[in-house]
Predict the 3D structure of the following.
Amino acid sequence: MLKFIGLGIYDEKDMSLRGLEEAKKCDALYADGYTSIIPDKKKLEALIGKEVKVLKRQEIEETDILLDAKKDIGFLVGGDPFCATTHIELYMRAAKKGIKTKVIHSSSIFSAIAETGLQIYKFGKTASVARPEKNFEPESAYDVIAENKARGLHTLVLLDIKSEENYFMGAGEAIKILLSIEKKRGGKAVTKDTEVLAIASLGGASIKKYATAGALMEAKIGPKPHALIIPGTLHFLEKDALELFR
């Protein structure tokens, strides 16, 4: 059996009791080191009482290391297991091989953002800001923000993670990337005067700062991971909530 076990959004203590019980029963445990930041490995292993091997992207997507029908394999995922399409693909591969699966859900940024006071049902498509590289400068995040704003919807902006390189994009870097795209596109989706909510350590310290993009570029937000929210049309209660984070 392949068990998808959510680790939650802050530290090893976010894993549910059911998730912990299922992890302890597994013959082998692996953790996703590609799509999200996982809790401290040593603390996680001490909590479960078993070794946890952290997998790279290629090991998750291109090998069958997790698809051992003769064992109970636990796949530990930061946040909630199926918020990343990589995990859905893995789930389907297991199903095609006739391997039984079990899912143990946990907290996710997609629900935790409600503590900002912004109404969940008013969020549009989620955007992801990727680090520009040679011959790779994606602008899709800008397009998503522009589309959501045109519809009056809020945008959750996730920031690039490359765990293998120990690289975790910060809020300031993401804003600079969005502003550089704005300079080329001129669509006024994200300008220096755009109000932005930067968030850090949701589920733990839960740091939130609401200011203009220009002000947040150099601001110290708090421990990573970071994320951004570009508000759409605000209800008066949402406006009051955001003012708490000035």
Summary: The first strand starts at residue 2 and ends at 6. The first helix runs from residue 17 to 25.
